[in-house]
Each structure stands twice: as C-alpha cells, then as structure tokens.
Amino acid sequence: MPSQKKTRWAQLRVGILAIVALAILGVLIFLLTGTSNPFTPKAIIYTYLADSAALGENAPVRLNGIVIGKVSKIALSGSRDPNRVVRMDLQIEKKYMPEIPVDSIAAIGAENVLGTKYINITKGQSLNTVKAGQEIPSKNVSDINDFLEQGSNLLVQVQGILKRVDAIVSTVEAGKGSIGKLLTDEQLYNNLNATVAEGQRLVSALNSNKGTIGKLINSDELYADVRGSIARLDSLIDGLQQGQGTAGKLLKDPALYEDARATVVELRRILADLNAGKGTAGKLLKSDELSNQIAGVIDRIDVTLDKINSGQGTIGQLMVNASLYDNLNGFTRELQAFMKDFRANPKKYLRIKLGLF
Predict the structure, then answer these.
(1) Could you tell me the residue range of the domain that residue 241 belongs to?
(2) Looking at the structure, do residues 95 and 80 belong to the same domain, yes or no?
(3) Phi and psi, residue 54, nearest 5°
(4) pTM, whole model, 2 decimals?
(5) Which residues of 185-202 are buried (b: 16+ CB within 10 A; e: fewer)?
(6) CA–CA separation, 51 vs 303, rounded Å?
(7) Could you please report the per-residue DSSP string of 89-139?
(8) Residue 74 pairs with which residues in a beta bridge?
(9) Residue 233 falls within a domain, yes or no?
(10) Are residues 132 and 74 part of one domain?
(11) HEC string of 20-57?
(12) 9-28, pLDDT tens digit by residue?
C-alpha cells in the first residue's frame, strides 16, 4: 500500500501538470485570437480627434490597413479646440515605429457601415519618423450619424417620389389619361384585337399567291424573271468592263480618254485666253473701250427710238402720222390693182407704135 508521502507527491505533480497545461492553452488562445503579442515591446504615441465616434479602447490600430497595435486609452483632453476634444493613446509595437513618418495622418475607419471601428494611420512621405510620446496628426471623418442624417434626407426624397408614383398608378388604375385608357378601355382593346386579326389575315394573304404582293413573294415565275434580269444586267456589266459597245469604249478606250483630256486642255486654254482678254470674245469680256462703244451704240439706238416714237423723221411719220399711213395704204391698193390688171391684159400696156418718116 503506497505511503501518504508518495500520494501527495503524485497529486502535486498532477496539479503542476494541469496548471502548466492551462497556461499553455491560455497563451495559445491569446496568440490565436489576440491582435498583438504581449511579449513584444510597445511604444505609446497619441493623437487628438473631435469625436471618438463610439470607438472603444483596445480597438485595433492599423498602418495602411496592417494591424500594428491597439488603442490603449480614450479620454477627454480638456482642450477648447473643437478638433482636439478627445485624446487617444495608441500603443504601437516598437518594430513598426520606424515605418511611421511624422507627417502620417490618423483617422477613424470602419470595416463597413455597421462594422468594427479602428484607427487607421495613412503613411506619410517624410524621412523623419515618429518617436514614443509624440503626437501624430489626425483627420476627422464623417461619423455614422452624418451618414444616417444624409440617408434620412434621401429617404424623405424617395418617399416623395413614391407618393407621386403611387398617385400616377392610382390614376392609371382609374382609367384616367392615355395610359389609363390603354389599360381599361374595352373599346380600345377590341380595336387592337381587330387590328391584330386584320394583320393575321394580311399575313395569310401574303403567304398565299393572291394579290400583287402575294405573287411578288411566292411566284417562282417572278423570281425567275428577276433572276434573268439580274443575269442580263451582270452580262451588260461584263461587256462594259471588256470594252464592248459604245459605252464600253467610253469606259475602256484610251484614245477616247486622250481626246477628252485634250478637249479639256483646249477648253482651259480658251478660258485662259478669255480671262486674258485675247480675241473678240476676250475683248468683249475684258475691254473697257469696247464696252463703252457698245454702251454708246445702245444710247444712240435709244435716242433714235425716242425720235421715232415722237414722230420725227420719215420712219417717225410712218409710225405716228395717220394720213401718211392712209396715203401709203391707198397707193398700195392702187399698185395691187394695177398689177392685177397688167397680168390680166398686158397688151393694153405693152402696145408699140412704129412709124416711118
């Protein structure tokens, strides 16, 4: 039978083993679930904000999204500056201190709208890094309350839109307006149904060989005629491309092209001569002297016509003197009567008398 001393020693060993096991288990749980290593050296820096935004102590501190420490303390600073009301002490692992430039900016962030909040430090560009006990600048961001206030305004606007939409739907359901009549008017439905039926009859007629359009769609003879016309057109185009016929020669004969080109060159030369004032036509276009002469002739003709219209001269008298016109008309009638009598009895006027002395 074991002695009492050995029993106590066995119980002590079991207790020590249990304590060691629990300690190891606690350390493992802390290392697996904690945000920092308790055995790593730490340094405290601080920042000021206008509002803690419901951020709690032990909240993570991140450097560009990477966890580098936690918030060790949050308290009122006693400052009257509205941007420095709350002081936050940030416990940073020392190995990350050389990675935080003095111009870095701290701000409150959140994983989502209702998610866990944390302090996020945006890394600056300065070559100097922050030291333990120094302040890091901060930037105040909009709190969830601001978003909720904005969302409330948006909700009011959406409610107003929904009310207007509901009013429109009520109007449509009541059969008012064009859309309401489209939905509730049985006469319109009957008309649409009749139109659809008429369209179906038209399609049926088109599918048959009835009517002109139906024959155009279904007639093999018409298809053959169209295909034949296309074949003849294709043959005509081939003939033109080969230079056959007058049109083909116009397209393919180089001599005709050269003649046309020479004609164009000659036409350009003639136009150049006209623009230069050469020749009669060129002088007519460019010579001021010839233009003045023509204008003078036109003026003299105009003066002459004025004299004729006023009865001056023989022609003017003929134009305006009625008695001279009547005399001339009577003379003309007598001359016509004489010529008629002369043709009827020429011997009367052509008698020749011969006498001997």
Answers:
(1) 219-252
(2) yes
(3) 65, 20
(4) 0.36
(5) eeeeeeeeeeeeeeeeee
(6) 109
(7) EEEEEGGGGGG-BTT-EEEEEESSTTS-EEEEEEP---SSB--TT-B--B-
(8) 88
(9) yes
(10) yes
(11) HHHHHHHHHHHHHHCCCCCCCCEEEEEEEECCCCCCCC
(12) 777 777 888 888 888 887 77
